[in-house]
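Protein in question kept underneath.
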Amino acid sequence: MSDTDPSEKSDMISIWNLQKSFGSNEVLKGIELKVKNGEVVALIGSSGSGKTTLLRCINFLESADCGYLTVDGIMVNLSLASKQDKYEIRRKTAMVFQNYALFMNMSVIRNVMEGLVSVQKKSRDEARAIAEAMLQKVGLSEKFDARPYQLSGGQQQRVGIARALALNPKVILFDEPTSALDPEMVDGILDVIKVVAGTGVTMIVVTHEMQFAYDVANHVVFMDSGHILEEGPPGKLFDKPEHERTKQFLARFNLSRGTQSV
């Protein structure tokens, strides 16, 4: 588990009554969630439980039907969000996608620079210096001029993480960052995310990697059928789940237990 102790910190994210449907399919059914400043939150649950949709609603890649969202003190009525509201929330968040979402016609360093130049309006020299530093942090100092298609999946995901870090966001949202990787590449990406967690940035990670959630998260949220069914510190939720559905889900995993707070 991360050494960061968020117990006395203020809320970075607050969600109240977030609902989202796709046609007649009600995907999120009144989600309420608080994430403290510096906290690492793992969203777990079966495929189709609403984890990714929740993540995408936080930074308006999907538009929620109703509810309220606060990020770093900015509160938005999700059913009435204006373009300015969305911009203000997005400038405080960064997303790491499961399919990398890189620009294939740009070099690695251009991919990391793009948001700094086009959104944050930094000079190209300043953007390049930041991009170089972030790529070095994720172990890609030799790949500045490569194109994404010349990289492995794990390397492409590292570019995605570097791009998120470069924006210096308040919150980084990870959408199943290892799901598209070959098994031998997973540990490397999880190690990079652990390093990011150690910087104190607030993180929400949708993951199927239960050991990672157990070891790194401060708080674990179990979702089922569009609801948050149970949540708590990893030592409590994994070792002493209260809900029968949570017990059924976690019974499939054989975790290596360390010392966890409950």
